[in-house]
Every structure is written in structure tokens, then in C-alpha cells.
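Input C-alpha cells:
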């Protein structure tokens, strides 16, 4: 080992996986696996003891799961960069990993080259998410944006939802606003389309859930 060796910790409850990861990483000059752990609690202890540059953590660790282990690792050794290495392709887990400031997320189904690329990126201080994880995040983001946009009502649309939920007819609303019934119907139709609702009953339920009216 040289003074500039990259120190890496591996935490996985399967010995054969740890052995495989070690073999892949230590084939690279200057990379050294300084410690291995088979559960999250030991992983945290070993990180605090060895202060590795990178900690590769499986999510499904016994005693302390990888997410909580990552949280403790980052709190106890801020310079250690965490790579979540897991079989789980779940959007919620990916978001949770980002929330605890994990710098990378890689699926075990990815090939060895992706593992090397992930460690190289973290070594250079860059985050790493494989293409499959990035696509997962992008889909989640776009769906969230779409859901948010669909529920963004104008002030008139919110008002018409409230009035319809209170039992007002289009004719009464038009008289109240001093506009044509066609204008009221336009606002009402637009609101229902944005909210993906089909009837006055649906509008009333939405108004109650969102506290536009009291039940």
C-alpha cells in the first residue's frame, strides 16, 4: 500500500459477495479493502475505527439496515463516501438513500464495470448512479411533477370547486361572479380535468379532503 491508497470498507451479510467485491476492487492498483462487515452495526464500528474513504453498504444488512448504517457512518465519519450496493430498485429506497447523503446507489444486477465506475466516481468526489437507477429517479421525478401540476388549480378553479361542493349550481355561480354560465363551466371542467375527477360528488370529496369545505 502507498500513502495514497484508497481505503474501502465492504458491508454485506453474504461472505461470497464480499469476497467477490474485494477481488474486483483490489485488482485495481492503489485500492485496498481495509475492513469487511456482515451487519450494519459492525460496519459503523469499523468505519469509525478505520475511517475508510469509501463504504460500500448493502441495504439489507442484519442488526442495523444499510440505510441507518449509512446515516451513522456519514454522521461519524463525514469524509467517508457511502455507496449503497443493493438488489433493491425501489424509488423510495433510492430517495431515502439520497436523504442521508449517500453519494452513490448501484444495483447488484449491474456488471463489474459499473462497480468500478462507481468507486472511481466517489474517489474523485463525484456522485454515481447507474443508468437504471437514474432512469428510476427520473421516472419518479416526472410522475411527481405531473401529479403536482395536475393539482395546481387557479384561484377561480379552487373557488368553483368549493362552490360546487357547497351545492351551488353553475347558474348560481355565474350570477355570483357576474359572468356567463359558459365561463363557469370552463373553470369547472378545467378543475375536474386537472384533478382527474368526473362528478360533483368527486369534487365534494376532494373539497373535504383538502379542507376547502367542512364535512
Amino acid at each position: 500500500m502507498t500513502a495514497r491508497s484508497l481505503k474501502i470498507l465492504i458491508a454485506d451479510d453474504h461472505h461470497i459477495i464480499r469476497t467477490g467485491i474485494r477481488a474486483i476492487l483490489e485488482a485495481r492498483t492503489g485500492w485496498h479493502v481495509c475492513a469487511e462487515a456482515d451487519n450494519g452495526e459492525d460496519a459503523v464500528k469499523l468505519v469509525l475505527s478505520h475511517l475508510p474513504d469509501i463504504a460500500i453498504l448493502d441495504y439489507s444488512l442484519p442488526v442495523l439496515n444499510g440505510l441507518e448504517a449509512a446515516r451513522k457512518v456519514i454522521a461519524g465519519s463525514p469524509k467517508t463516501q457511502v455507496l449503497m450496493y443493493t438488489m433493491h430498485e425501489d424509488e423510495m429506497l433510492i430517495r431515502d438513500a439520497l436523504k442521508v447523503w449517500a453519494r452513490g446507489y448501484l444495483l447488484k444486477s449491474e456488471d463489474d464495470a459499473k462497480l468500478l465506475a462507481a468507486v472511481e466516481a466517489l474517489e474523485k468526489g463525484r456522485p454515481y448512479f447507474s443508468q437504471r437507477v437514474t432512469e428510476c429517479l427520473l421516472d419518479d421525478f416526472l410522475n411527481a411533477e405531473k401529479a403536482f401540476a395536475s393539482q395546481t388549480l387557479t384561484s377561480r378553479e379552487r373557488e368553483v370547486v368549493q362552490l360546487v361542493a357547497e351545492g351551488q349550481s353553475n347558474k348560481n355561480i355565474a350570477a355570483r361572479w357576474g359572468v356567463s354560465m359558459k365561463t363557469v363551466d370552463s373553470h369547472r371542467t378545467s378543475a375536474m380535468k386537472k384533478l382527474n375527477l368526473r362528478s360533483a360528488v368527486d369534487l365534494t370529496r376532494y373539497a373535504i379532503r383538502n379542507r376547502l369545505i367542512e364535512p
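The chain has a mean pLDDT of 86. The chain has ten helices and six strands.
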